[in-house]
# Entry
Amino acid sequence: MDSQMIGRRGEKRFDLMCSDAGVTCNRSIEDDYGWDKLIEFPARLVPFASIDMQPGHVVAAVQVKTTTGSSRTVSISLSNALRYAKSDIPQFVVLVTLDGAEPRYFARHVWSVLIADWLKAARQADANGVTATHQSSVSLGFSLQDERGPGLLDWIRAEVEAVPAPYATAKRRFVDTVGFEHGFGTAHMTLTLRNVDEMIDIQLGLRPHVDAKRFTYTSERFGIRARRPEIDESDVQVHLTPEGRRCTLRLEFHNGEGLTVPARLYSARRWLLRGPSRVPPARGDRGAEGPDPRPRIVPTRRHGEAGGDLRLRDPDGEQARRGRLDPRERGRAGPRPRFDHDEAGRPERGVGVAGARHKRD
# Structure
């Protein structure tokens, strides 16, 4: 018996199961997108609920596979697998085995595990240069735990209803985020900077943008880099917005008084630059060779703001910090600013600055 006739035998048995259970089963006339049956379950009526508040019908698309042998592994084109993974309609793959006196029914819900596996297969295919996804395929196996028996339709409905409503939103959220747990990609910029301070200022948000000769961004998913960049531009301006984290800034004075205020902690890294770089000596470091070994505190006041910013910069470029300074303490000599804790209450190491002097603008 040819494969087409075997397939029809399995589909007709599935049709009969739906009819016996009172489930509407519509056959795909133009089978362009992989599913064979669109099934619709009767709505569950909620007692005492208004007519307009009654739940809608549960709908699912089913691909029916049939075999007369002992193998429980089927092949699906990569193009169809991607359609199942991205479709807003619940998708199921049913395997009908006709190797015994009675048909056996296996089924799998195209949900988290299968979606992740098929999206990863597509990313790997892209990295390998595949463009014709209909000519590539993925394998789908069914274990004994996937056998549903005569309760197949009840299981399908339960699977759909177990997903937090709305189903399409939950599925789209998973499809859009899976594989990006460790980042979305890699950006490369070719910059022309006069010194390391310019790059540190960019990281701290002290410069609104930076000119780049070239900027490329290549996405990475499941740790697999895309075959070509999504963005590849020349002579552009790159706008960077640093994100600080909450901390506590404590100012200690030589007279024993102190002040604690909320602050935001910003970091800059010199290792973001390739090649040798050097920070010029601090102002007032007359004739000194190399960078000033003391941290520099630069108070500033923005237009229209009371108080100011306190920016702490390690002259070696390895640590740069920024926080808010209370206006009541401006002009007092000898503060010892210290960032004590991050937003989780953990001590911040290596951020304390002793012996610094803060002057009025």
